[in-house]
Amino acid sequence: MINEEDLGLVQTPVHCFYSDIENFNVFASSNDKADFSILHINARSLPKKIDSVLSFISSVNNYPFSVIVITETWLYKNDYTALYNIPNYTFVCKGRSDKRGGGVGLYIKRELDFTITDNPNMSNQLESLFVQINCPGLKKKCDRSYIPPTKGGC
Fold first, then answer.
1. Which residue(s) pair with 127 in the sheet?
2. What residue stretches are annotated with the Endonuclease/exonuclease/phosphatase domain (predicted)?
3. What angle do CA 140, 143, 146 make, to 5 degrees?
């Protein structure tokens, strides 16, 4: 069993919500921009949907997300990832080597200093990518763990 102490996590207040584009734009225009913000997109094939991802980011008024998390990139371990760049972000990903589907990726704002880290405590059933982001005055750990569906259920 993985617990927060194994991952080195510290509980901090988080403002998290699901929203459509219109409501998000109302929220973003009426609030100060967060010091650190994360957007999650389940792409179900980044190669086929990169244009939709770029369009979506544009439609949320180019909100300056610190990290954009992508699950189900459907990238393979040795894919040429420069094809999937987003302006002003660095893309790091962990594709699959043996199966179709799955894969995780992070777009990290270029001005953020980050290090890709390992977490040996993670299960082999999880697809994970850990980075430590060093923001002025504090460090943030960002993990994208994803349990891909299996044939016949979880």
1. 146
2. 41-117
3. 165
